[in-house]
Write a structure and sequence with these properties.
The structure holds two protein chains of two kinds. Chain A is built from seven helices and five strands, in the order H-H-H-H-E-H-H-E-E-E-E-H. By secondary structure, chain A is of the alpha+beta class. Chain B is α/β, with parallel strands linked by helices. In chain B, the strands form four sheets. In chain B, strands 2-1-3-4-5 form a five-stranded mixed sheet, covered by helices on one side. Chain B has a five-stranded mixed sheet with strand order 13-12-16-14-15. In chain B, strand 7, helix 11 and strand 8 form a beta-alpha-beta unit. In chain B, helix 6 crosses helix 13 and helix 7 packs across helix 10. The radius of gyration of chain B is 24 Å and the shape is globular. Chain B starts with a strand and ends in an 18-residue tail after the last helix. Classes of the chains: A alpha+beta, B alpha/beta.
Chain lengths: ~160, ~525
């Protein structure tokens, strides 16, 4: 996620490599999009038309898939992506309080990036850590039994 | 010390999320500094999640447990001679003797937490592949019969008999058939799929291969949610090793029979846990629900006959084949045969995984295993079966946990997850959340779900604010009726369960008089 922005040429190159890797795979659109996002940090508009042509889809089809799934981004995220679980098991252990604390500390709401551009805050509906709630994920790393203080520590470490 | 002592430090996400990697590094560092030889095995989790990171030391008497261990505790543990099972405030004694674990019936989870999840040798030493070996020598119909005889029903929540589903696929002629494993475990309060995939992935692989032999499918997909990166990585490694070991591929163990697997990663859409939506997603499309019929067993993935089963259903099949249908069927009660890995979550002192035969009660799970609330306040409501399951008040905690008894109280056992709340919970807020969740996650195909959930959120908001309360409650019941009867899938069709159960059992939270109707009319 901490990828420097790629040039237009590089995006095209990455996209073609990904498509080549998945050539012949049935129903490959999601794996292709995952790989592009993994390499670029998001799915640039310029990649969409290349993917559409290669998979014999319309750009609208590809856009429809990207916009359906919350995981796919159409714009870069901050270097740190903080996902706070909003589901029931976390609510039962103070998840709402933790979510409010995160918004206050970062100065932004969910689906947004802090004004200093360092952290993108996203909701997530269950990380499967429901016996050790509340839970968060920071750049793909799960953390359980997270108190507001612990969250501040984790963010301070730039975890 | 000449022989290296084996120390187990879980690699399960639940352990990683509380610092297991730091603990493992601290143990290595400390052992090196003291000149001690030890071998660290990164096992799955035992499921005693309040004790994570639960470190085990292999001693002549058995594995001794220490937990919850943090990296800072490690020097003290060495000082206490823990490599010989020495006493320490964190010592829990022999792992197998811990009552929480001892009083379980682990069939599906028999190996989880015990073996190295990626060691084929370990897997086989603990009975792995016995089921597949048997299946390779059987006729497809005989495999299906064995599964039908066992009484196994879909563990994803719908509880449809697995053998009957398989038989439909077996008897539908096609040039290609598929096995699709639904590992999109999105329900809050559930983590058994994740624990199994991270702790014993070969069991799932074996179960899917058996399913392939049973119905004549050569290709399988495991659809795992993107929120489970470690499960995905573990499965991918396991599949690669299984191929190298000849347990997947064109010629499984020289039998001439083929089966191979691919892991597919979801992308954050809860609805893709609905089977037809998952098929759309596997085909590379938006996860929009399909109308049924046609059944996926007849026209499923890429239009071909497809077995769709949950992780736990498929991972239970190897045991059934290895030990026989009767062995499995002897557990359980009524038409709910076998065991279910219950997941204890939310506000409980001792959250974790409890595999038991059907028929025990919620109260046993909450208190005998869960130890009561984590907060120390009285427990008030328990949601069973995920975000689409009912909230049960204490008056219903003695109903035996089996599929039919729960249907009888307008609830569902579902995937066996339960989320406990103490008396600080506002049930009107939880009901509103259920509608909000449905609105966020709706695929948009049918109106009762797409629009109904939005209107439901608004109506509950008005009730909570005391605006025309009586009329709004009437509207809410009417809306729930429409959603129950008019939605295409369980998301819209079952969101009324948590909403109505909250309203019926906890009317005081909605500003209404205490309940006058019997609890059994919940939904």
């Amino acid at each position: 996620m901490n990828t420097p922005p790629l040039s237009e040429d590089a995006v095209q190159q990455v996209t073609r490599q990904v498509l080549q890797r998945h050539a012949g795979q049935a129903g490959s659109l999601l794996p292709v999009l995952h790989d592009i996002q993994h390499a670029v940090g998001f799915i640039p508009a310029s990649a969409v038309s290349i993917v559409a042509t290669a998979l014999q889809l319309s750009r609208a089809d590809v856009h429809g898939v990207i916009s359906f799934y919350p995981h796919f981004r159409q714009a870069p995220a901050a270097p740190v992506v903080l996902e706070v679980c909003r589901a029931e098991a976390c609510q039962a252990m103070g998840g709402d309080h933790l979510a409010a604390h995160a918004q206050q500390q970062l100065g932004c709401g969910f689906h947004a990036t802090s004004p200093d551009g360092k952290v993108t805050l996203e909701p997530v509906y269950c990380l499967g850590l429901c016996a050790q709630s509340p839970a968060v994920m920071i750049n793909g790393q799960p953390h359980a039994r997270v108190t507001p203080d612990r969250l501040d520590q984790l963010l301070a470490q730039g975890a | 010390m000449t022989d290296a002592i084996t120390v187990f430090v879980p690699r399960d996400s639940a352990a990683l999320a509380v610092g297991a990697n730091d603990v493992a590094r601290a143990i290595e560092r400390e052992a090196a500094a003291r000149g001690l030889a030890l071998a660290i095995v990164r096992n799955g989790s035992r499921g005693l999640l309040w004790l994570e990171t639960l470190v085990e030391v292999q001693t002549p008497a058995g594995r001794v447990a220490y937990g919850p261990v943090q990296a800072g505790d490690v020097p003290g543990l060495f000082d206490a001679d823990w490599l010989r099972g020495g006493d320490h405030p964190l010592c829990q004694g022999l792992t197998e003797a811990i009552p929480y674990l001892k009083n379980q019936q682990r069939l599906t989870f028999a190996r989880v937490g015990i073996i190295d999840p990626l060691s084929l040798a370990d897997y086989q030493a603990h009975g792995g592949f016995a089921g597949l070996k048997k299946a390779l020598a059987m006729q497809p119909a005989a495999i299906v019969d064995e599964v039908t005889e066992s009484g196994l029903r879909g563990r994803g929540g719908a509880a449809f008999p697995t053998g009957i589903k398989w038989k439909t696929v077996l008897t539908t002629p096609a040039d290609q058939k598929y096995i699709a494993c639904n590992a999109d475990e999105g329900d809050s309060g559930t983590f058994s799929d994740r624990m199994l995939m991270e702790g014993d992935p070969y069991t799932l692989i074996e179960g899917m291969a058996i399913a392939g032999m049973a119905v004549g499918a050569t290709c399988g997909y495991i659809y795992v949610r993107s929120e489970y990166p470690y499960a995905i990585a573990t499965l991918n490694s396991a599949i690669q090793k299984a191929r190298q070991g000849g347990w997947l591929g064109d010629d499984i163990q020289g039998s001439g029979r083929a089966f191979d697997l691919e892991v597919r990663c979801g992308a954050g859409a809860y609805i893709c846990g609905e089977e037809t939506s998952m098929l759309e997603s596997l085909e590379g499309k938006r996860g929009v629900v399909r109308a049924k019929p046609p059944l996926p067993a007849i026209k499923g993935l890429f239009g071909k006959p497809t077995v769709i089963n949950n992780v736990i259903s498929l991972a239970t099949v190897p045991t059934i084949l290895a030990k026989g249908a009767a062995y499995y069927r002897d557990y359980g009660m009524g038409r709910s045969k076998g065991t279910l890995p219950f997941q204890l979550a939310g506000n409980l002192k001792q959250g974790g995984l409890v595999e038991r035969a059907f028929g025990l009660t919620l109260r046993e799970l909450l208190y005998d295993y869960g130890g009561g609330s984590a907060s120390g306040r009285p427990l008030r409501a328990v949601q069973v079966g995920g975000p689409l399951g009912a909230y049960l008040p204490e008056s219903q905690w003695d109903v035996p946990l089996d599929y039919e008894s729960y249907v009888g109280i307008s609830a569902m056992v579902g995937h066996g997850g339960l989320v406990a709340f103490d008396d600080s919970v506002d049930m009107a807020k939880m009901a509103q959340y259920a509608m909000e969740f449905c609105a966020v996650e709706s695929c948009g195909k049918c109106t009762p779900c797409r629009i109904g959930a939005v209107r439901g959120t608004e109506v509950i908001g008005k009730i909570r604010e005391g605006q025309q309360r009586e009329q709004q409650v009437h509207l809410l019941r009417d809306l729930c009726d429409t959603m129950l009867g008019g939605s295409l899938c369980a998301l819209g069709g079952m969101t009324p369960y948590p909403v109505l159960s909250a309203l019926n059992h906890f009317p005081e939270d909605f500003g209404l008089a205490a309940p006058h109707q019997p609890a059994a009319t919940a939904a």
